Inverse folding.
């Protein structure tokens, strides 16, 4: 499992100006100029007449395969979106969309995708997107990161019904709770579909969904997560610290590794904290000190040094070319990441501009990069 490459940047964007983000036509000719990347999708969004999926919630559960065309001039960390009238020469473009009529059809196609890789690389990454995301945007971001990090195995996006609007924060918060059962259904089924190992990664508000789904799985099937997941990655999690502690305490044993990417310069999470009132605690993704989680068996990676002052800091793991390059370089640690102490030490050897702080009991660990894009 190339865990660090999977971890490197699974994160999403927020507002994109006045563009009509609901339009993403299928353009097969894009593959004549671009590079194809397969993204599988499980969703409980509503299906629209044109075969795309919108922001409304649906009781139905759909399984899809999307083919994304990556433009020939793409540079790591950049994501050029193609919407109503995409230019495949310069923009990510949706080149194909197929819906599976039955779960068994999805399983066969997923197995065929995994069989293209050596047996020790037949891993499945399940990515849970964040607030203000359309289904096509999420697929584009997953394709960008898979391409930039050259990740093996298969990527599955769990596309929950986000409104896809910067004004949809409350709607998206309710949609997260609505979507828990669908994520549980997906995770429980993947072992049957032939996945060797499963890594669960979530960004921003999607981290709340991921943790809520795992919490309810643990209540129903104690120790399921540790037995079935090869790791959990939370990127810029928009999660209250008290809520996170209550969720993780439901685990009899936390999956290893359990990695949280944070940045104290994450302005989106700082706004999220402020709108909750003066008594709100720090958000997990903007954690400034390890003290609040020092007793938990998790690893904290502080990406503050890579935050561009012109951006929100909510994108660092996906948009910093330097950070992407470092994580690519760190792929040599994949074997060591099977155990936490070895992983941390090897990570420090490969990335010398890193400080590692442990609490007195040796539990939570924070890796802080002292170098950055500047």
């Amino acid at each position: 499992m190339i865990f660090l490459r999977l971890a490197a940047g699974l994160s999403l964007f927020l507002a994109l100006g006045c563009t009509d983000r609901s339009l993403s036509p299928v353009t097969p000719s894009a593959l004549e100029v671009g590079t194809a990347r397969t993204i599988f999708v499980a969703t409980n969004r509503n299906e629209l007449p044109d075969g795309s999926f919108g922001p409304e919630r649906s009781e139905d559960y759909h399984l899809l395969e999307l083919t994304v065309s990556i433009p020939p001039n793409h540079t790591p960390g950049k994501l050029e979106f193609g919407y109503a009238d995409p230019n495949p020469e310069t923009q990510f473009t949706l080149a194909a969309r197929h819906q599976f009529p039955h779960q068994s059809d999805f399983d066969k196609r997923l197995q065929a995708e995994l069989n293209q890789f050596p047996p020790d690389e037949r891993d499945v990454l399940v990515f849970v997107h964040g607030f203000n995301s359309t289904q096509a945007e999420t697929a584009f971001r997953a394709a960008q990161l898979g391409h930039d990090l050259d990740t093996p195995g298969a990527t599955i996006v769990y596309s929950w019904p986000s409104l896809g609007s910067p004004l949809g924060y409350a709607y998206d918060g309710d949609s997260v709770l609505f979507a828990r059962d669908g994520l549980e259904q997906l995770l429980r089924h993947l072992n049957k579909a032939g996945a060797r190992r499963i890594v669960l990664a979530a960004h921003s508000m999607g981290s709340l969904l991921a943790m809520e789904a795992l919490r309810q799985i643990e209540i129903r099937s104690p120790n399921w997560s540790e037995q079935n997941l090869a790791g959990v990655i939370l990127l810029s999690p928009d999660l209250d610290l008290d809520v996170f502690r209550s969720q993780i305490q439901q685990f009899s044993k936390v999956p290893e590794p359990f990695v949280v990417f944070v940045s104290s310069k994450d302005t989106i999470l700082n706004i999220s904290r402020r709108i909750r009132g003066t008594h709100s605690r720090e958000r997990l993704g903007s954690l400034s000190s390890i003290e609040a989680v020092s007793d938990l068996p998790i690893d904290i990676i502080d990406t503050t040094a890579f935050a561009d002052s012109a951006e929100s800091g909510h994108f660092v793991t996906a948009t910093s070319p330097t950070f992407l390059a470092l994580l690519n370089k760190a792929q040599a640690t994949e074997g060591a990441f099977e155990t936490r102490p070895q992983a941390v030490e090897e990570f420090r050897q490969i990335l010398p501009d890193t400080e590692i702080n442990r609490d007195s009991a040796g539990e939570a660990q924070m890796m802080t990069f002292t170098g950055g894009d500047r």
